[in-house]
Design brief:
This protein is an alpha+beta fold. The chain has one domain (2-152): Alpha-Beta Plaits, CATH 3.30.70.560. 28% of the residues lie in helices and 25% in strands. Strands 1, 2, 3, 4, 5 and 10 form a six-stranded antiparallel beta sheet that branches. The longest helix is centred in the middle third of the chain and has 14 residues, at 62-75. The radius of gyration is 14 Å and the shape is globular.
Length: 156
């Protein structure tokens, strides 16, 4: 899953989100990437983001997990005023094993994950052999995103 924030104290928001995710029933955080500072995508008139990726082990189905993540976003003050707006917290279900899901409100793999360095770089960090179903190996896809600035942060 992907984590991101650019309002308030983004690193603190990501840490709080990780604590909330760890409290989801039948779900365990297996690995968490470093935190990365990234330029906004889409609407450029906003602060940089802090992004990370976490690997989860869960017995929840994809829809139930997505709903749990949306609840965490809401409790952390997430509002959706317009597409790509600044946000206190953004939690995305990037992958769900090797499944490909296309339902209203749920697309897995995330439809733009394979195009975004701020997703691919931390994903490759925690799983160098990761593949994005229907797109290919994340490490290969990452090479195509070299023009997107991403800065790995010291321990956040």
């Amino acid at each position: 899953m992907g984590l991101g924030a650019n309002l308030g104290d983004p690193a603190a928001q990501l840490h709080a989100a990780l604590q909330a995710i760890a409290a989801i029933a039948t779900t365990r955080i297996a690995r968490v990437s470093s935190f990365y500072r990234t330029a906004p995508v889409g609407y450029a008139g906003q602060p940089d983001f802090i992004n990370a990726v976490a690997a989860l082990e869960t017995r929840l189905g994809a829809r139930m997990l997505l709903d749990a993540l949306a609840g965490i976003e809401q409790r952390c003050g997430r509002t959706r005023s317009f597409p790509d707006a600044p946000r206190t917290l953004d939690l995305d279900l990037l992958l769900y094993g090797s499944e490909q899901i296309d339902e209203p409100g749920l697309q897995v793999p995330h439809p733009r994950a394979h195009q975004r360095r701020f997703v691919l770089q931390p994903l490759v960090e925690i799983d160098p052999d990761c593949a994005i179903p229907g797109k290919g190996r994340a490490a290969v896809l990452l090479a195509g995103c070299s023009g997107q600035p991403v800065q790995r942060l010291a321990q956040a």
